[in-house]
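call fold(seq) -> tokens
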Amino acid sequence: MRNSAFFAALFGVAILVFGAAKLIDNPYVFFAGYVVLQYIVLSTGWNILGGYTGYVNFGTAAFFAMGAYSTVALHKLVPEMPLPIMMLFGGALSGLIGLGTGYLTLRLRGTFFGIATLAMSVVVQTLITNWSFVGGSRGAYVVRPDTTSVFAIDYIEYLFLLMLGLSVIAVGVARAIEKSKLGYGFATIRDDELAAEASGVPTLRLKLLATALSGGFMGMAGAPLPYYVTYLDPASGFSLSYAVNTIAMPLIGGTASWLGPVIGAVLLGTLQQVATVTISSALSLLIVGVMLVGFVILAPRGIIGWFAPKRGKGA
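ret:
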């Protein structure tokens, strides 16, 4: 399927999803659906670097929080700025941070790179905690309008629509990368970086691009958060659940395909939302842990791996 046809199909699915949410006529569907869509974007962004390129990033919360705090700053500086512009700004900022982080750390490999991204997240959180303009350790309040002036719909529905559109873009870009020369370049790095370098593949350039794209999508996913929660502090912006879920969802769904993070995010995100309503929100990380251990043991290639053709011994 060509990229244009694939995007058209994605938008068709998005229209059906929004229509189904409207038919249910329950405001909580949009609250919960926003979270699931947010994780689709985060998982897809993480998979561009962690799945396609093979560099595991533990600093997801930092990119996500930078997008959120950029919205807090812009809300104070330019209160009338449209949220989609804030999302673009948050994505650009997180993408630049990803590019800089990549330049400093991508010469590291394996565990050392993962530790470096985790350290980066701690540094960013420390800076935000001590930056009084965005609330510092006290946190910041953002007043969420009841409705939007443009579409005249409930603001939560508006946030849902924005995240739905962003998820379509993120998944479409991930699928386009997977089927392109760029995706094949990422795959050579994942499979054998030294051999790729010896073959003339510009590995450092590709890794920087992967880091920037990954960080950009995570930043855009985090930008609407202040309007969703209305109160943002470092503990919630840099929550462990974002880092854990963003890694677990692609692993459970399968990192070898654009579809894996989507399946993992929908499955795990929906289970968490159901558990939050029916039992307790404290079960979220427990569900992630149990499912992740189970899939690592029973299906190390994720759900997608169950349906992928197995290679014979002579292959």
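The chain has one domain: 3-303.
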